[in-house]
């Protein structure tokens, strides 16, 4: 069963929609889920009660913290990463290589690796989209081979699973 590195940031709706619109459909497509949340996303999901539902979809621990030195790596290497929803802040940090939490650490290590597919799905407000550095961040990510697919609070997120190169059962 192929491993999907599912990463989520603190965007509008993540505390209600991540399980039903992304994680469960991905598991149903055969992916073994290695889920990493930003610290803020984890706080939101715990507060909404969705964290435990998410954790029940996978045999791997849902992470937001780094391991201690000497601890085994809790996740195997994913064959693909899906960052959804990706906040303006975390997308900018990814483009700049700022790995200041576990979610960004796994994404920064995967970006630029030709053997690992990376899909990034930013959800930005019109105000966030106007930031002058944003086009450069998108160009950096696309130049590194990432597939960038914006998502919206108004549309179901599930369609971004179609942008993954394989389904979970295609590769061991
Ligand atoms: C209710 C609420 C909804 C938010 N929705 C978004 C959003 O959809 N997109 C976004 O980029 N930031 C959004 N933000 C701002 C982010 O949560 C904020 O920038 C945060 O620092 C992102 O942290 P993270 O990327 O580490 O998860 C929202 C904040 C709040 C309080």
TrEMBL record:
<dbReference type="InterPro" id="IPR003382">
    <property type="entry name" value="Flavoprotein"/>
</dbReference>
<dbReference type="InterPro" id="IPR036551">
    <property type="entry name" value="Flavin_trans-like"/>
</dbReference>
<dbReference type="Pfam" id="PF02441">
    <property type="entry name" value="Flavoprotein"/>
</dbReference>
<dbReference type="GO" id="GO:0003824">
    <property type="term" value="F:catalytic activity"/>
</dbReference>
<feature type="domain" description="Flavoprotein">
    <location>
        <begin position="24"/>
        <end position="150"/>
    </location>
</feature>
<protein>
    <submittedName>
        <fullName>Flavoprotein</fullName>
    </submittedName>
</protein>
